[in-house]
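Hello Y.,

Per our agreement to keep a running log of every chain we model this quarter, I'm adding this entry. I've kept the format consistent with earlier entries: sequence first, then predicted structure.
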Amino acid sequence: MGKGGSLSDGVLRKILLSYAYVGIWIFLSFTVIVFNKFILDRKLYGWPYPVSLTLIHMSFCSVLAFILINVLRVVEPVSMSRELFLNSVVPIGALYSLSLWLSNSAYIYLSVSFIQMLKALMPVAVYSIGVSLKKDAFHLKTMLNMLSISLGVAIAAYGEAKFDAWGVMLQLGALVFEATRLVLIQILLTSKGINLNPITSLYYVAPCCFVFLLIPWFFVELPILRENSSFRLDFWVFGTNAFCAFALNLAVFLLVGKTSALTMNVAGVVKDWLLIAFSWSVIKDTVTPINLFGYGLAFLGVGYYNHLKLQALKAKEAQKKPAPEGNDEEAGRLEERESEAAGEKRASQA
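Predicted structure for the entry above:
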């Protein structure tokens, strides 16, 4: 009885911890997205400088990642040569900086709810770029699913009450750069046996992003900021925002490390619908029935795509040579985590 009770307690504790990690990730992801919208929207806080905001995030994340790895030694740094850094990490950092710049810029022009609907195109971008770079094989069934997702997003865009073509172009550009980055991570790093978790990824990539973002900041935003001499940086607002962005990466580290890819997908779905509801009820963004119908169609396509990916991972694991049960289970989990990191815009950022 005692042994069975202790086992039940251990299982219950593991379940409660998983729910806690999911709740923390949803809360922080939700907070970062809404916080960024609040800062960048001209009708809210009114600081429409996405490059500057991203620079603050990257500098803050770079410093904290350095402290966590080199001072507190929470995780071990990845062994990386100078050549590998220049040929792999630097291109990935360049793509990440472009993705963050454009995605944060989209908040100036589009509603939070519509941006979440456009983000449903991420699997389409990842799969298309993966096929074009010969990382993924072309399958007619998968491509038809990608077309169904695209159709759903197109219907949602058609029903958008405050459609802004420039904002849509910015968000789609961000998706393309982010999808290319995710595919290149698989080609340039993972294929060489180098796996970066969210903390080590920030340790290497965030400084690169900071350097690349200085170029558009110097020519685009710095002259405007110089003219706007009345502005004073609110360290409470921007410090809290940067801390939330970094805490989100820590939450991803916990969630991916302690749960499965399926849990991450379900959590992402819950977060997206919560953001749409929040955008409609609190921010008072207009969400039309056509919006919801289109996003619902895209949502079904994304769900089916994730189901196929998980089934493919299980089939691939089943084809491996027999191994001790514990090692086999752990290998399956690791593979699921890698797939999730490649398929999700973890956001790392919102």
